[in-house]
Amino acid sequence: MDLNNDDRINSSMIKTINFKAMIMGILLLAATFLLSSNTYETAFAQSGNSILGCATTVKVTISHLPKQTAVATTEVTLSNIGPSDDRGYGNITIPGIGSGHVMVNFHIDSINAYSAKVSNIPGQTGESNSDDMTEGDVCGQSIHPIASIGIPGIGSGYLAITKVN
Predict the structure, then answer these.
(1) Annotated domain spans of the chain
(2) Is the Cα dihedral 135, 98, 63, 120 positive or negative?
(3) Between 39 and 23, where is the model more confident?
(4) Domain 57-163, CATH
């Protein structure tokens, strides 16, 4: 029986086990770092989103545009973007016209007001504009009023912004 050969086998096995343990340790540290980094970013993003307006998520409804065949609705989540503004973006499909994007803005001014703009709608030739809706109108429990919206190249219709949560 050659003891030197058994020692070489044991030594080789120990080196292999140590190498595997070292790799597993590195992977464990890397995974821990990546998970903790992601958790920090999520916590930071959540803590910085103290919105100014009364609604975190709003429902945008657009109706009565020329060639529109049904009411268009979408929900938009708002985030704070500055000392006097909340803003959120979403996608909207206007039946009979096409799909595009919607931006909702809340601004603190002499009146606290919400407004919405649409973009990238097929046939749209310029920036849309809408009447402002007061915070009380958007978040009140009474009948929600509508505002007018004009989309160059498409026409004028009605817009409603209502609080979801």
Answers:
(1) 1-47, 57-163
(2) positive
(3) 23
(4) 2.40.128
